[in-house]
């Protein structure tokens, strides 16, 4: 279990290496410290056979993602493959991702692959941190997927937030009724969402090196809330 000294050393190491975005293993250490849960995952080097073996170890279906500091928007670049159901699909997806990466960047640094348990159930929400010129560090919450892109359905507060603030943020968005199980949808565990918002707020107060954080999506159902994808950006 990492401690604050280890997290600070990790952040400083990344900054000194002239890298702004944490690798998955580094993000995992940060989330682990703050007790923020994720699906099962493994990373491998730039080796297709290792990626297949990791997928078999985690169990299908899986999501496959490229690890590269040069390709920030991996989904847009075609470097994320979802719902892979067997080893041949993983092998084909690895080769396709490497080909897409070569088109997305002239000379991309390929660190390897992230293989992750595929989470399908529950609602998609986003939780983020950002440095605002006027207010300083702010925290953002909203429905994920098409809702954030089309409806811009988000709530924003300055950190730190209180438990009451966290509840207000959740209730403020237009999609709150969806989280509560409207039209037969699964009921989201609001207490777990509040807890995650408070932990992210704490992170925003304690980790001054962070300029931006995106947990998108966070899958939440009646009994768990998991960060399926995280991006943590540090001051350059």
In words, what does this structure look like?
The chain has 236 residues and is of the alpha+beta class. The protein folds into two domains: 40-118, Dna Ligase, domain 1 (2-Layer Sandwich); 123-234, D-amino Acid Aminotransferase, Chain A, domain 1 (2-Layer Sandwich), CATH 3.30.470. Helices cover 38% and strands 27% of the residues. It contains eight helices and ten strands. The protein has helices spanning 4-16, 24-33, 48-58, 87-104, 146-151, 163-172, 176-179, 190-206; strands at residues 41-44, 62-67, 80-84, 112-117, 123-132, 136-143, 154-158, 210-220, 225-227, 230-234. Strand 8 and strand 9 (225-227) form a beta hairpin. Helix 3 (48-58) packs across helix 4 (87-104) and helix 6 (163-172) crosses helix 8. The longest helix has 18 residues, at 87-104. The mean pLDDT is 93.
Number of separate domains = 2
The CATH homologous superfamily of the largest domain is called ATP-grasp fold, B domain
Could you name the CATH topology of the largest domain?
D-amino Acid Aminotransferase, Chain A, domain 1
Secondary-structure-based class equals alpha+beta
In whole angstroms, the N-to-C terminal distance is 27 Å
Q: Note the quaternary state here.
A: single chain
Number of helices: 8
State Rg: 18 Å
Strand content: 25-35%
Short overview:
This protein has 236 residues and is α+β, with helices and mostly antiparallel strands. The chain contains 8 helices and 10 strands.
